[in-house]
């Protein structure tokens, strides 16, 4: 049976690369969607079996649209994670390859990609206007379709190859060790037979009881005295009013572990709400086979 996996496309995005690494099986069809919400809705509505979206970058932090859609708009568990290296390139139409830097008028890319290279872009192309696109590969496509314009796309080498662009420069992100964390979503857990994971995580959304001084401290204490390692914590607006937040907490433990069950029960007994967002294996790119 063919399984369908939605990803943030078009072909050649970093998310496409991540999806290829995660799903090398021959019976998997990767289906491209133009935006992160489109991927999540496709999985939520059962149009695709699973989805792959970016959630966090080492330089720019959280991909807010992924988190906000996961929390507010859809109800699909996280079933896997891949940390993947990101090398941003400057891509131009071949007819502009020899052009002086000061003649480029526009830089196009996904906001995360532009933010990862902002110092370099400001320094080398102070005259250029930044234009945000839904993905890096979409930016590459637009640059290739506008060969009369001296525009630059920021994105993966692969998107340049697909759109037949010239690579002006590689590794243009402002800091080394650029990595993005991608998550896999789906209603059915996957048997990751060809992959090895070193870690297992459980993601939770914690809503604090109102008018409860020290509530966050008490929540953290429930994990702390059980020696449960938290690998990520952040707050996002509930969207119900200024100053109202919930917390997203990632614990390095399986959801069914007795210690994590105990921590969740204790937090709920404090009057806080805990929503499980998923309990899943975490893969690093070096441990993942290539799609053949
Ligand atoms: O546009 C792409 O290539 C994507 O896959 C999106 C995305 C992101 O949203 O973070 C993925 C990885 C990089 O951090 C930059 C952009």
Task: List descriptors.
292 residues, D-Maltodextrin-Binding Protein, domain 2, Alpha-Beta Plaits, ten-stranded mixed β-sheet, five-stranded mixed β-sheet, binds prephenic acid
CATH architecture classification name of the largest domain = 3-Layer(aba) Sandwich
N-to-C CA distance: 19 Å
- CATH class of the largest domain, please? Alpha Beta
Domain count:
3
Bound small molecules, which ones? prephenic acid
Structural class: alpha/beta
The low-confidence parts are: none
Count of helical segments?
Answer: 9
Helix content: 25-40%
Major sheet summary line: 10 strands, mixed
Folded structure, characterized:
By secondary structure, the protein is of the alpha/beta class. The chain has 3 domains: 97 residues, D-Maltodextrin-Binding Protein, domain 2 (3-Layer(aba) Sandwich), CATH 3.40.190.10; 81 residues, Periplasmic binding protein-like II (D-Maltodextrin-Binding Protein, domain 2, 3-Layer(aba) Sandwich); 82 residues, ACT domain (Alpha-Beta Plaits, 2-Layer Sandwich), CATH 3.30.70.260. It is 27% helix and 33% strand. It is built from 9 helices and 15 strands. The strands form 2 sheets. Strands 1, 2, 3, 4, 5, 11, 12, 13, 14 and 15 form a 10-stranded mixed β-sheet that branches. The protein has a 5-stranded mixed β-sheet with strand order 8-7-9-6-10. Strand 3 and strand 4 form a beta hairpin. Helix 8 runs antiparallel to helix 9. The longest helix has 12 residues. The radius of gyration is 21 Å and the shape is globular. 40% of the residues are buried. The structure holds prephenic acid. Pathway: Amino-acid biosynthesis; L-phenylalanine biosynthesis; phenylpyruvate from prephenate: step 1/1.
């Amino acid at each position: 049976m063919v399984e369908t996996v939605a990803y943030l496309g078009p072909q050649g995005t970093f998310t496409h690369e991540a999806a290829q690494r995660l799903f090398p099986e021959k019976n998997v069809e990767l289906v491209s969607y133009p935006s992160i919400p489109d991927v999540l809705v496709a999985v939520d509505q059962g149009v695709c079996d699973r989805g792959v979206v970016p959630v966090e970058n080492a330089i720019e932090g959280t991909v807010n649209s992924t988190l906000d859609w996961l929390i507010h708009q859809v109800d699909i568990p996280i079933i896997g994670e891949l940390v993947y290296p990101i090398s941003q390139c400057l891509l131009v139409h071949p007819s502009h390859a020899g052009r002086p830097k000061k003649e480029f008028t526009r830089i196009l890319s996904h906001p995360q990609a532009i933010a990862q290279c902002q110092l370099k872009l400001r320094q080398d192309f102070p005259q250029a206007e930044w234009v945000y696109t839904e993905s890096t590969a979409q930016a590459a496509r637009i640059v290739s379709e506008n060969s009369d314009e001296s525009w630059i796309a920021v994105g993966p080498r692969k998107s340049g190859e697909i759109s037949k662009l010239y690579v002006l420069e590689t590794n243009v992100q402002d800091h080394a060790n650029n990595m993005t964390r991608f998550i896999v979503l789906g209603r059915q857990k996957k048997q990751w037979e060809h992959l090895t994971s070193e870690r297992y995580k459980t993601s939770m959304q914690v809503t604090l009881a109102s008018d409860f001084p020290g509530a966050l401290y008490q929540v953290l204490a429930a994990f702390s005295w059980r020696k449960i390692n938290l690998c990520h914590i952040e707050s996002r607006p509930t969207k119900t009013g200024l100053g109202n937040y919930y917390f997203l907490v990632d614990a390095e433990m399986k959801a069914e572990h007795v210690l994590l069950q105990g921590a969740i029960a204790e937090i709920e007994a404090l009057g806080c709400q805990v929503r499980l967002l998923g309990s899943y294996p975490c893969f690093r790119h070096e441990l993942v086979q290539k799609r053949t």
